[in-house]
Design brief:
The chain is mainly α and about 110 residues long. It folds into 2 domains: about 70 residues, no CATH class; about 40 residues. The protein contains 5 helices and no strands.
Length: about 110
């Protein structure tokens, strides 16, 4: 019984984190197909954030040591992803002569 509960615990933690941080329980769809698509999008978001968390320097060091891997909670990789995406957008704006100054001011305002 205990081994079954220990295997199930990771799944419970995943669903709790997905409901709190990724909006798993916030769907407002009525059709089965729409709910299924929404669930898939939440799972893809979770996979993306987990993938990004694996490449944080601390996680890389843990993998090289073959130690137990402790990934950060969902909000930390989510902040990193948002920061990365904003930097990508602002880099694109900075390449254009007409939007160069706007990109510089946005970067200062967003503290990136």
């Amino acid at each position: 019984m205990l081994s079954h509960c220990l295997r199930r615990w990771g799944i419970e933690v995943f669903f709790k984190a997905s409901k709190q941080n990724l909006g798993l329980g916030d769907y407002q769809l009525l059709r089965y197909r729409g709910i299924e698509r929404y669930l898939r999008l939440v799972l893809i978001a979770c996979l993306l954030l987990t993938h990004l968390a694996l490449y944080v320097p601390d996680a890389k060091a843990q993998r090289q040591k073959r130690a137990d891997l402790r990934l950060p909670n969902i909000p930390q990789p989510e902040r990193n992803l948002r920061c990365h995406l904003w930097n990508h957008v602002l880099d694109g704006l900075a390449k254009n002569k007409t939007t160069h100054r706007a990109a510089y001011k946005l970067r200062q305002a967003l503290f990136l």
